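Limitations

Structures in this collection are predictions, not experimental determinations, and the ligand pose is part of the prediction. Treat each record accordingly. The example that follows, with guanine as the small molecule, is included so readers can see exactly what is and is not provided: the inputs are given verbatim, and the output is the predicted complex.
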Amino acid sequence: MNDALDIVEGDVVIRDGRIASVGTADLGSATRVINARGAYLLPGFIQTHLHLCQTLFRGYADDLALLDWLKTRVWPMEAAHTPRSLAAAARQAAAELLQSGTTTVLTMETVHDTDAVFEALAPMGLRAVVGKCMMDADSAVPSRLLEDTARSIDDSVAIAKRWHGRANGRLRAAFAPRFAISCSRELLEAVATLSAEHDLLVHTHASENRDEIAFIKSRHGRKNIDYLADTGLASPRLCLAHCVWVDEHEQALMAARDVKVLHCPGSNLKLGSGLAPVVEMRAKGISVSLGADGAACNNHLDMFEEMRLAAVLQSVRLRPGALTARDAVWMATREGARALGLDNEIGSVEAGKRADLILVDSPKGSDPYSTMVYASRGTDVRTTIVDGEVLIDDFRPTRWDFRDIAAIARAEATALASRAGI
Ligand code: GUN
Ligand code: FE
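Predicted complex:
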């Protein structure tokens, strides 16, 4: 995934957590040699929109549209989370993600106990940009999720001070105002200022659903993206999940300010949100990367599925080939790195970058991009390496037992749903 999309046959040398060379190497002095014959080596996938905390909600929130889904299922369940259930959700999600080839995520967690998520992620080995969800408006929210504005801001800054750059830089913090409906203008303005001051990303949802944009129009008299720009948020640090319902004018604004779009095709289909104008946004130079969104609206976390859906949905919207397999792999790797401001660190197999790599065991077709997008799935991932650490080794996790993690997650999910009355 270098700029030329070169496909190299040869060796990749990893030293001190980084890629030392790509091509032919003398492996005589290596401490370990992994035989990758019969597989493709790719940069690990970068999912730019996830909610790890929603992993325990899988199967408890089907067949609803966005606002009802949030009000009747997701918010009551988020309110019922404890530090233990949040840790169980983060571990389950990280295990699933690493096993299916995702090495980096941008995740929006819930309002409270985000430290538990960082603590759970540190030993799992996943690279993660984590945001404590901010919600200081909207009366339909359970009281446990509704925050005082100043407290929400202070907590977010304190979490960033505690965690940003930890675990050899693998863990980072972001501001995560939930969406314009759940946030006061005062909060959004403060986040805009603080994100510039601390150089932290702002991760939010925008223009996912028609009822959502109608609500913003009635409350603020503005289109959603214009409203977010009014608060000062429109910058290269702004990461907007979905952007299904954005018109030409809003797209031009996003392009001019280098705002990032996080496309979630699986979630958009299941929640009935719509088909995003991905080809048009990319044609304007907007960075569009990919994410599964979460187990509550997808319901799996497999990047191969999102790549395939991203491509085939544009076939239906426009024409076959409007978004190619190459485009989809680019979005899953290079655009993810760009969205996170980590383009110098991750997103390609090039000397100097972090060794975040996967081996995909599926040489099923003649073209590797076509094989990845149209003929592979997460279960084809043989090996996953993050920061030079082998986390999945020939299909086997090296640091945890998946059955233990899954058993704890199941027990925590049942108890959580019962606390939430679902
Ligand atoms: N909009 C506001 N909150 C959420 C959420 O948790 N998931 C999705 N998909 N959209 C949202
Ligand atoms: Fe989301």
